[in-house]
Amino acid sequence: MSINKSWFVLEDKIKKIAGFSYTDIQFTQALPEMFIKEYTQKGDVVFDPFAGFGTTLFAASKLGRVGVGVEYDEERVSYIKKTLKSPSKIINDSSLQLSKLDLPKIDLVFTSPPYMRYFDKENPLSNYTKAGSYKDYLSGINKICSQLKKIVKKNGYVVFEVSNTFDKDYPMTPLAWDVGKVISKYFYFERDFIFCFKNAKIKSTSANDKHSYCLLFKNI
């Protein structure tokens, strides 16, 4: 499927992961596959700084690319390692420390960062284990992007899948816009794609379950 319009719809193939919390889900693999096919060639390196359950890495490996990811949670890393095949790899660490990791030059970043609402009190970049503010979260995204700038190849691409969030009795958190603004300090913002699920089976109570945005940047 070529990305030839500003919006697209995919079948809902999100799945829950056995042995993990009900909120721990694996995203539909078709999403990263679309961008990997569009913006990379076989043998290229695809990187996910928030690897989660390895969706981007598995998609990259399936398509003949090298998937490299960083994931904070040790149990998720163990889950990925059981299936992921070399030369793709997963690293158990914080993406705030990218410059200290042994990472190759990257052709494409495809990721969905952990979400934070402006009133949340736990920092997602610590896997929700430490206190933090929305300002701290955006500062962390900034630090990660400043390090990505040094390892993404010239003319390489960066894609963040992210949505604005809505909650009862609270104003919207413009997460997509705020994260996009931070990334654009380091990469040229080419365009956004609106992503919707068809026949969605899993709905979020804390995020916009109607659609999200794939924000496309280029390292020029």
Description:
There is one protein chain. The model is unreliable at 202-208 (pLDDT under 50). Helix 2 links the parallel strand 4 and strand 5. The protein starts with 6 loop residues before the first strand and ends with a strand. Helix 1 (30-39) crosses helix 2 (55-62) and helix 4 (134-151) runs parallel beside helix 5 (175-183). The protein is of the alpha/beta class and 220 residues long. The longest helix has 18 residues, at 134-151. The chain has one domain: Vaccinia Virus protein VP39 (Rossmann fold), CATH 3.40.50.150. It has helices spanning 30-39, 55-62, 74-81, 134-151, 175-183; strands spanning 7-11, 15-16, 25-26, 45-48, 66-71, 89-92, 106-111, 152-162, 165-167, 170-173, 188-198, 212-218. Strands 1-11-12-8-7-4-5-6 form an eight-stranded mixed β-sheet.
Describe the structure concisely.
The chain is an alpha/beta fold.
Main traits of this protein?
alpha/beta; Rossmann fold; 12 strands; eight-stranded mixed β-sheet; two-stranded antiparallel ribbon
User: What share of residues are in beta strands?
Assistant: 25-35%
What would the CATH topology be?
Rossmann fold
Give the biggest beta sheet. Answer: 8 strands, mixed
Number of helices: 5
How many separate domains? 1
- Give me the count of strands: 12
The strands making up the biggest β-sheet line up spatially as 1-11-12-8-7-4-5-6
Helix content estimate: 10-25%
Element pattern in H and E = EEEHEHEHEEHEEEHEE
Average pLDDT level: 89
Low-confidence region ranges: 202-208
Tell me the overall shape. Answer: globular
Second-tier CATH architecture: 3-Layer(aba) Sandwich
CATH superfamily: Vaccinia Virus protein VP39
Distance between the termini: 26 Å
Class in CATH?
Answer: Alpha Beta
Radius of gyration: 16 Å
